[in-house]
């Protein structure tokens, strides 16, 4: 049986795999919405090591970082290795009006959920209008 060998096909496959892993390792899909007086952020981190998840805020920049460790089986022949490993990181610039010191974070089923409350000073409020008589304006004469 004759086998056709194309060295460029294998090189192209390996190159595509490296690029796909690089893109996937830096990709961190998210959903963001407002619910009442909180913003809710869901970030997909499938397979991330729970102890490696780090959420920080500095200069109104929210940073989410996580690590997925590579598989380290010995004496195996990989037939496909498409799941990325390495560090995931994403930064979001956040505006004023959020209580960044009260962020709550949970990690369940591969999804990191952040609950970010709106700061009290940024919440809408109603201003009560006083009803009554107008203050009297007294006329003064220039000296």
TrEMBL record:
Highest taxon listed in the record's lineage: Bacteria
Keywords noted in UniProt: Stress response
Record-annotated SHSP domain positions: 21-132
Pfam families (UniProt xref): HSP20 (PF00011)
Zinc listed as a keyword: no
CDD domains in the cross-refs: ACD_sHsps-like
Keyword Cell membrane recorded: no
PROSITE patterns noted in UniProt: SHSP
Family: Belongs to the small heat shock protein (HSP20) family.
The name this protein goes by in its record: Heat shock protein Hsp20
Native organism: Cellulomonas gilvus (strain ATCC 13127 / NRRL B-14078) (Cellvibrio gilvus)
């Amino acid at each position: 049986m004759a086998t056709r060998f194309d060295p460029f096909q294998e090189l192209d496959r390996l190159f595509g795999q490296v690029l796909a892993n690089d893109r996937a390792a830096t990709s961190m899909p998210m959903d963001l919405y407002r619910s009442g007086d909180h913003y809710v952020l869901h970030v997909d981190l499938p397979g991330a090591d729970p102890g490696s998840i780090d959420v920080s805020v500095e200069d109104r920049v929210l940073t989410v970082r996580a690590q997925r460790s590579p598989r380290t089986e010995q004496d195996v022949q990989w037939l496909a290795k498409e799941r990325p490993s390495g560090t995931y990181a994403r930064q979001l610039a956040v505006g004023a009006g959020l209580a960044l010191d009260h962020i709550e974070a949970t990690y369940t089923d591969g999804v990191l959920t952040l609950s970010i409350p709106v700061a009290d000073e940024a919440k809408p409020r109603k201003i009560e209008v006083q009803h009554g008589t107008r203050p009297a304006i007294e006329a003064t004469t220039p000296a």
